[in-house]
Amino acid sequence: MKCTRCRTRAAVEVPRANAAFCGDCFTESYVRNLVTRAIRHDRMFGPDARVLVAVSGGKDSLALWDLLLDLGYQADGLYLGLGIGGYSTRSHVVCQEFADARGAKLVTVDVADRAGFTIPQAAATKRRPACAICGLSKRHLFNAAAKEGGYDVVATGHNLDDEVAVLLGNVLRWETGYLARQSPVLESTHPSLVKKVKPLYRVAERETAAYCVLKGIDYVVEECPLVEGNTQMKYKGLLDTLESQSPGTKHNFLFGFLEKGRAHFPPDGVVLNECVECGSATPSDTCAFCRSKTVIGVAIGSRPRDWAPAGS
Ligand code: AMP
Ligand code: FES
Ligand code: ZN
Question: How many domains are contained in the chain?
Answer without folding.
Answer: 1
